């Protein structure tokens, strides 16, 4: 979503795509090139059961519009959003296992 030729990056489009993932499938969101709009999709992905990835290579801004000083600042915000959504942040070992299985 959000790339030339792709679907517009909206929560509605994300939900429609998630509806077509096979049962038990693991999926994640990467908000490349959608700037501050990434955070709304991060929240949507968390609510829909997906994983998220953030970093300066995708978006320079925090949800409030201020420029992030580091990848760590973006990751901290995503981790807080994950916990606020009632989810657990994966440990390094858990993330590796998920990615290996995918």
How would you characterize the overall build of this protein?
With 102 residues, the protein is mainly α. The chain has one domain. It is built from four helices and two strands, in the order H-E-H-E-H-H. The mean pLDDT is 91.
Throw out a few tags for this protein.
globular; 41% helix; 4 helices; mainly alpha; 102 residues; two-stranded parallel sheet; 2 strands
Sequence-ordered SSE layout with sheet pairings:
Elements: H1 11-18, E1 28-30, H2 38-47, E2 51-53, H3 71-84, H4 92-101
Number of helices: 4
Give the strand order, joined by hyphens, for the main sheet: 1-2
Q: Strand portion, in percent?
A: 5-15%
Shape category: globular
Task: Give a short synopsis of this structure.
With 102 residues, this protein is mainly alpha-helical. The chain has helices spanning 11-18, 38-47, 71-84, 92-101, and strands at residues 28-30, 51-53. It has one domain (11-101).
């Amino acid at each position: 979503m959000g790339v030339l030729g792709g679907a517009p990056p909206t929560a509605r489009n994300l939900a429609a795509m998630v509806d077509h993932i096979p049962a038990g499938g693991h999926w994640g969101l990467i908000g490349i090139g959608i700037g501050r709009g990434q955070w709304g999709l991060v929240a949507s992905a968390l609510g829909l059961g997906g994983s998220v990835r953030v970093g300066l290579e995708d978006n320079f801004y925090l949800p409030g519009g201020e420029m992030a000083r580091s990848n760590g600042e973006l990751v901290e915000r995503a981790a807080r959003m994950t916990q606020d959504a009632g989810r657990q942040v994966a440990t390094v070992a858990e993330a590796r296992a998920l990615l290996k299985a995918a």
